[in-house]
Amino acid sequence: MIVSIIDQLTNRFSDEVKLDAILVFFILFLSSSCSALYAGYYFFVGLRMVSLAFIYLSFFAGVIFYLYYERIDILISARLYGLVTLTGFSFITTFTGGVHSPLIAFQLITPIGVTLIAKRKESFYWSGLLMLWGGILILEESTEILHFSRDLPNVSYLGISCFIGLFIYIISIIWGYEIATEKYQGQINDKNHELYHQNVEIELQNQQLDVQNNRIISSINYAKKIQDAVLHYGNKIEDSFKDAFIFYRPRDIVSGDFFCIEHEENKKIVVAADCTGHGVPGAILSLVGMNLIRSIIHEKKVLSPDQILFHLRESLYHFLNQEKSQSRDGMDISICVVDDEYVEIASAKSTVYTIQNNTILSHKGDNISIGGLGEEYVQKAYQLERIERRKIDFIYMCSDGFQDQFGGPKDMKFMKKNFRNLLLTMYTRKGEEQLSDLEQTFKNWKGAEEQTDDILVLGFAPN
To answer: pLDDT band at residue 401, thresholds of 50, 70 and 90?
Structure first.
């Protein structure tokens, strides 16, 4: 029966309190059973008031165990146990000679039991109450104001029976708890052994993941070299314009943003694009976009930005087999073509900013993306905007990565308004100085936040 109850206790309580639950069970079980035996013994020797007190102790030890089994708090159990034992053994002491009682040693069960159950400062409170009770017994010895029984019971070996009972009670608790500890320590060792093997397996898996991750990172780093080589193939913006810069920062090593600076006939063609996604998928699409744009410009000799966009959308639509694959991949892109007299601008869901007469103007273009749309959009034309070159102080082309970056004191997006104001405050400076301003502003704004998207900001003075 005891083993069955212990198993039920350990099933009902968590691993952290299993041993505590077993200890409380032994204390309460032994208190109840020993009290029942003492009740019978003292009834047999004629101490019926003492026998009734032990019946009281036996009954309430069982009640406390039942309440504890039903998940009553350990601290409450300890307080109930302290109250029952202190009142019960105080009653016994009162009727067996007060301070001279041979059974007075039973009073020690209160602080011992509470200490074993609660294992905290609660035991000091009950020890204090026991000392107070001892003081009352001493006071009664000298004043007799409480009229305790002063007659010692005439029973042989009464004191030694008390000692033997206490000794067996405490040794049984220690012995039972040691058995339980050994049993469940074995279970803990088994679990630890199992956890050790699991940790070894996890460590091996982590090592494999590290190897695979290093291979992937190495591949992506190599892909970055290829993308950088394609990006910087041909003309540099610094060679094409006297005052220019490019702020280019991929989010994940390789980027879905790309730029091109092409020369054909007497025209300089500047392209800034933001492909669907970022990382490897965006980088693949960027390489496709760059190749198609260069083919349209240099092989088909299409030099008007609106027509370049038109042919690019048609070429990408067929290249990605979007009439059958239902692919929605594409890019937002802006193109500026600069010749001796004019700057021509066309864009697909991308904004170009120009500075004219100390004012920043937004050229939003058409809300028709390149790729990712149905066949009905393939034949739609893009609008062309032509501005006299001499009227423009500076041109900015960008993706939405900078203005969408989270940061600042309130962890918000940088926003278009702040981006426009930033451009307006720095356009009079040299290109390399503007680049430094952008880098520092971005760093300060981002702070400890993760970079949200790929970033591309391209600026140049057309004159």
So the answer is: very high
- 427 three-class SS: coil
pLDDT (tens digit, 9 = 90+) per residue, 315-364?
A: 998 888 887 777 788 899 999 999 999 999 999 999 999 999 999 999 99
Q: Which positions ≥6 away from 398 have C-beta within 8 Å?
A: 272, 351, 353, 419, 456, 457, 458
- Whether pLDDT at 231 is above 70: yes
* C-alpha–C-alpha distance, residues 19 and 447, integer Å: 50
- Return the half-sphere exposure (C-beta side, CA atoms, 13 A cut-off) of residue 343: 25
Say how many Å lie between the first and final Cα of the chain, rounded.
99
Q: Is the separation of the CB atoms in 458 and 258 below 8 Å?
A: no
**What Å distances lie between residue 372 and 283, 364, 369, CA to CA?**
17, 19, 7
Closest by CA to 80, choosing from 66, 98, 96, 91, is 66
Nearest-angstrom CA–CA distance, 342 and 363: 15
- List residues bridging with 252 in a β-sheet: 254
Question: Are 282 and 291 in contact, with CB atoms under 8 Å apart?
Answer: no
Tell me the residue type at 337.
V
What is the SS3 assignment for 142-163? HHCCCCCCCCCCCCCCHHHHHH
CB 2 within 8 A of CB 31: no
| Residue 264 token pair | 């054909």
Identify which of 305, 311, 294, 138 has the alpha carbon closest to the alpha carbon of residue 230. 294
**pLDDT confidence of residue 150:** 59
Q: In terms of CATH architecture, what is 236-460?
A: 4-Layer Sandwich (3.60)
Q: How far apart are CA 226 and CA 231, in angstroms?
A: 9
Helix (H/G/I), strand (E/B), else coil: 254: strand
Give me the long-range contacts of 144-149 (CB less than 8 A, separation at least 24).
148/94, 148/98, 149/94, 149/95, 149/96, 149/97, 149/98
Instruction: Return the domain boundaries, the chain.
Output: 2-188, 236-460
This model's pTM is above 0.70: no
Please name the helix (run of DSSP H) or strand (run of DSSP E) that holds residue 227, with its range, or none: helix 158-231
Letter string b/e over residues 95-113, b meaning 16 or more CB atoms within 10 A of that residue's CB:
bbbbbebbbbebbebbbbb
Q: Is residue 71 packed enough to be buried (19+ CB in 10 Å), middle (13-18) or exposed (0-12)?
A: exposed
The CB density around residue 147, as the number of other CB atoms within 10 Å, is 8
Q: How many helices (H) and strands (E) does the chain have?
A: 13, 12
